[in-house]
Amino acid sequence: xxxxxxxxxxxxxxxxxxxxxxxxxxxxxxxxxxxxxxxxxxxxxxxxxxxxxxxxxxxxxxxxxxxxxxxxxxxxxxxxxxxxxxxxxxxxxxxxxxxxxxxxxxxxxxxxxxxxxxxxxxxxxxxxxxxxxxxxxxxxxxxxxxxxxxxxxxxxxxxxxxxxxxxxxxxxxxxxxxxxxxxxxxxxxxxxxxxxxxxxxxxxxxxxxxxxxxxxxxxxxxxxxxxxxxxxxxxxxxxxxxxxxxxxxxxxxxxxxxxxxxxxxxxxxxxxxxxxxxxxxxxxxxxxxxxxxxxxxxxxxxxxxxxxxxxxxxxxxxxxxxxxxxxxxxxxxxxxxxxxxxxxxxxxxxxxxxxxxxxxxxxxxxxxxxxxxxxxxxxxxxxxxxxxxxxxxxxxxxxxxxxxxxxxxxxxxxxxxxxxx
Length: 421
Ligand SMILES: Cc1cc2nc3c(=O)[nH]c(=O)nc-3n(C[C@H](O)[C@H](O)[C@H](O)COP(=O)(O)OP(=O)(O)OC[C@H]3O[C@@H](n4cnc5c(N)ncnc54)[C@H](O)[C@@H]3O)c2cc1C
Description:
FAD/NAD(P)-binding domain, Immunoglobulin-like, alpha/beta, 421 residues
């Protein structure tokens, strides 16, 4: 059995940033275990630009952004195990470890001082939607179509309707248009887009592709191949309004209806999951409820910008390394909860004595709000406040908690973050 200070599961942007930070300039032994035969994760299929503005101050494509982190990991001396699928993560009395399988080495157990979960997310599939009709060819998730077009040189179809306005669907509307397909419309159930505003403008408005808000697909026609879909208006409760259906002849239906953290390994390891994020519940060090197992990136909560994934993952790697060295917190954490208008917060627990001077809490709101303040309160006192002109569920927000402000209260039992006037 091989032993490392830190084993990172997943070689996407989160896993790579965590591994570089955990390596701490060569002080610790670190391995990244990746099931694919290349590093970079989902970014390898995101050939459009717009990555890295926050991290590098320049516009990179997904593969360029991923390559910078893959190079940094190799230069730092991180050991990379490609083509290795992690089957199990556990934390027994002898410490955490992972079981993985590869064609080269068969099944092996890697022991670790700490494990970082960075397995990303998956797309919500067609089966989760319950749209009436047969299950003909021509229905793809937007990410599957992205891989076909960008990695395999295949066009999924020529006349396309997209259901859901998540970022991947918006980006694919533009990509398919540039490849010569016609995108008839993007139908979105909610009265607002679930993607970033910049993607709505650059991927739909600039190409004259209509965004039908408060609409959904109510029928898929075609026995063997999609022939048409019916798109109907929905009422305030999301129910289709009878008689509003419009038929769009098409050969392809793309689904961009949400991403779900990939938590099979976490669940099997006994990690507590949050119903709001569907990822692990973590403390300020990004450690899960199982001591020695950390999480970051899209497996923790779905991000909209990879730059924030890298920032968060670096902290997870740093803290996992410190845990492997024997560092422990004060043993007392207080809950951080979602208040009015807020759907989810990460981290959900904070060790005030151990937290850094400034701790970024990332969150999503549960509706569209204008001119509100994101306010963090502890014991009724305001400890952080951030004014926003517009807040939408599709854009991740953040609030910075200052350790000094929390310590100054002389004892904190809970922190709540909510929207106020
Ligand atoms: C289809 C799609 C398109 C996207 N497009 C954009 C975009 O255009 N712009 C943007 O900013 N963000 C985009 N995102 C969001 C993007 O996923 C994140 O910004 C970022 O890639 C998340 O990094 P990650 O490392 O957490 O996950 P990922 O990049 O998904 O990496 C996870 C890695 O873990 C590996 N893995 C999973 N399970 C195992 C296992 N059991 N054993 C070994 N390895 C495992 C996977 O193979 C993968 O390499 C997109 C996401 C998806 C799903």
